[in-house]
Amino acid sequence: MGKVQAAANQFQNSAEDLALGSLLPPVPPRPPASVCNLQRMGAAFPTRLSFMRILLRRMSAEDWHLECGLLDLDDDGFGTAVYTAYLPERAYSLIAFANPLADEDRTDRVIASAWDAAFALFDGIPSSEDIDRLRSQVPLQEAGRFEATDLVISRANRSLRLFEYVCSCLSRGEQPEACRLNEVGYLMRTTAVYGNGKFGISDRSRIAPRQETRNSFQAEMLAVFLIRQFTFDQLDHIASRRGPGRAVALDPTLKRSLGIGNATGLGMAPFVVSHPELLNHWFAARETAIARVRSMADIAPKEIDRALALLARALQHVSEWQTGDEDYQERNRRLLRDLGLLKTWLEQVDLERCATRLWDVLFRFGEETLGLDAQELLGALLMEIYPEVTKGIDAMFHAQETRNIRMTETVGATLKQLNAQYGWTDRFDFSLASENAHFWYVSENKLEPRFGRRAEEPGADREMPVAIARDMSAFRRTLSESDPQQSLMTFLHQHPEFRHLARRAQALEDHPYGEIQDNLISGNCSPLDILRFKLACFGAAKFDPKSSLWTRITMFQGAPLMDELGESWADDWWLSVAPQSA
């Protein structure tokens, strides 16, 4: 537990700052063996540390000014729009290009070559020449040519039936039914949001030193937030042209209930393997915040009331969660039953007779009684009660990732360290075909990660270095068969295939949450577990798997609108629910 606590310490403020009110030692964060596995990652929920929430809190705290500087659309909503976020020191602009799209060309698949709209997040305020250049390139997406000012590119399709239904209502001067909106949850869904130098856009290093883009995926989240605003403005514009004199704008309450959909496949899964220091921070921050709440004493009745209010919201959220996946349907039925148990527990708790640390007692009750989905939701709920528990943590979602190998270490010392770090790989017998059933590779056509079956598909000779458990097991075995007094430098000259693993292991000595402690090539590995974890870190909700390899989600659902960021309630949109009326 020592290294786990040390990893958490970089995020910790003092107990006095958090007013824990207890002389007992703080509850330690959950250990990596408990949380860094596929099953629990696949039960993740968004928290107040999600990247969307972090971005909007910064926008509010720094009083960013957001405006639509251009909305040049024809009667059908096709044309160009520009949205600019003015920061204290600079500006960022989303440029949107809406184009006609035949129904037969509308698809979520990555192989698509045309979309209802394409977008670019521009570093600064674009000139007319910049807009003209991007108008010719952005709709091409991967086939386009971009410059250093182009930070993010994206594309999206309308949710055609819902968009048309809402637009028809508004053009008649009527508001749509809230329940109809909730069936989908968005008017438009993105099929890709590319950043970090992908396809020739600006490299991450160009904006990494800036405070507003230093944290994980902040530029991408800003792009999606502004795309959401564009969908509302495009909708209101089309409705006004269809029903001049009688059309109405979509009610703000209904707008807040809509997010941006997203169709996400394997493209983001290997990222968490190739950025282990960052993965460590994502885990450590969340576990630190949960441990802070569990360490609190002297819980007041109003805090119980807040927990019950959040629990009621969670119950409604899960009840409204639409998915066609039978496994998720059953999981959500179990989740609703478990949330009912939590509700009963909280309603019957006797503060005077309960243990000093009420939330720790509740959390341990959850671990003993509830399913993984409810356990993870409970952790997120506890964080939501106390905004102060994330103080200082939400500025730590970045990593240097500069790795050098200490070549002077001996083989024996290296093996000892690896046995301590990667002893969990002993759970897997890689002589079995079932533990080597899959391989990860990059498609030649779209340069996107894919998940292949080793015995059935070609390409295993070009697999990506994702099988950390297998490769670290082989590294340890080869070290154990070598002279323990030999230097690591000599060993790696003889076995250069292990060089990247030596570098990785040394970099993660003080990052205990940096590895997914599971076999990512086994026959029962589900990439959806990785996708859900990363998307929950983004702040996504309402996962709707469409296969074992991709899922639909909703982003920014329930979030404040562009002109509402300064409102006192603007950060209170965890697990959004449908409005009861407009």
Q: How would you concisely characterize the structure shown here?
A:
With 582 residues, the chain is of the alpha+beta class.
Tally of extended strands?
A: 11
User: Percent of residues in beta strands?
Assistant: 5-15%
Q: Summarize model confidence as the mean pLDDT.
A: 91
What is the radius of gyration? 25 Å
The main sheet orders its strands as: 1-2-3-4-5-6-7-11-10
Counting helices, strands and paired strands, the structural category is alpha+beta
What does the overall shape look like?
globular
Can you give a write-up of this model?
The strands form two sheets. A nine-stranded mixed β-sheet has the order 1-2-3-4-5-6-7-11-10, with helices on both faces. It has a two-stranded antiparallel sheet with strand order 8-9. It is of the alpha+beta class and 582 residues long. Helix 13 (276-294) packs across helix 17 (372-385) and helix 16 runs antiparallel to helix 17 (372-385). Helices cover 41% and strands 13% of the residues. Residues 13-21 have low confidence and may be disordered. Among the domains are: 62-265, no CATH class; 297-385; 411-507, no CATH class.
Q: How would you summarize the topology of this molecule?
A:
Elements: H1 2-9, H2 15-18, H3 32-35, H4 38-41, H5 51-61, E1 65-73, E2 79-86, E3 91-98, E4 117-123, H6 128-137, E5 150-158, H7 160-171, H8 178-184, E6 186-194, H9 211-214, H10 218-242, H11 252-256, E7 259-264, H12 271-274, H13 276-294, H14 301-320, H15 326-348, H16 358-369, H17 372-385, H18 411-422, E8 438-442, E9 449-453, H19 468-480, H20 488-494, H21 499-507, H22 527-538, E10 541-545, E11 551-555
Helix pairs in contact: 1-13, 5-10, 7-10, 13-17, 14-15, 14-17, 16-17, 18-19
